[in-house]
Amino acid sequence: MTTFGDMMRVPGSRGSFLDSNAAGADIRMVYSPLDSLKIARQNPDKRVVFMAIGFETTAPSTAMTVLRAAAEGIENFSIFCNHVTIIPAIKAILDSPDLRLDGFVGPGHVSTVIGCRPYEFIARDHGKPLVCAGFEPLDILQSVYQLLLQLAQGRCEVENQYSRVVPWEGNLKALRAIGETMELRPYFEWRGLAFISHSALQVRPAYSAFDAERIFDVPGVRVADPKACQCGEVLKGVLKPWECKVFGTACTPETPIGTCMVSSEGACAAYYNFGRFSRERVRRATALPTPSVRATGR
Is the pTM of the predicted complex or chain greater than 0.70? Predict the structure, then answer.
């Protein structure tokens, strides 16, 4: 089994991949699915499975790897596809009755693939502004400024602050590669958000030779969110990360419980690693009625 580094720590029903490694399993961290394909090429006597995960950011590299494996006829390589799509997740958040978000900082990496057009429904149907942002400090500051300016002026639009990288229509070649090798799943279960229809990808039948779900007997195991974890409320803006019952105590980047702490880019991990205020000072600062903005995606 091969996967990205942050997946090695994700807690499951029987521990994490790191725990399985310690018990003798052969699970390797890779920086790209092409690294996994290289391992398969070098070990023709072993079945090599890549744990494919992530939003549209990482899906193109998985798709291109499947296409290369097919072109080279590498038969001992497959992917366990857990790629997710961002728009259904945003829709689920927006449809939540306890939503407390005033706007969105759009995900720069995802948008380099899908573009900005898919976000137009957020402003049109839900009256929430979105600014697609880059990753430099000035990018973030400018994006937040653009959002606050829209709110102050009573506007509601989709703006592209990251236009030097993000095309409005997206990366058509990347989208074609995804479309050729993958299709939408009817349902997919998200930690913190439960089941969302058509929110994830699976391997198309034409490439079933590289689909680990078809090659192996993968049980349909459900892993419920820990009862103490409140990631769903954090994602919807109902709670600030430090208001979660287990934040900074049972749940830390070293011992993550929920999705927002597992990922180094999650809201809870960011608050834990880079927060400059004590909890009491943050409570006082956020007691004022200021607009709340949530970053989405990876």
Answer: yes
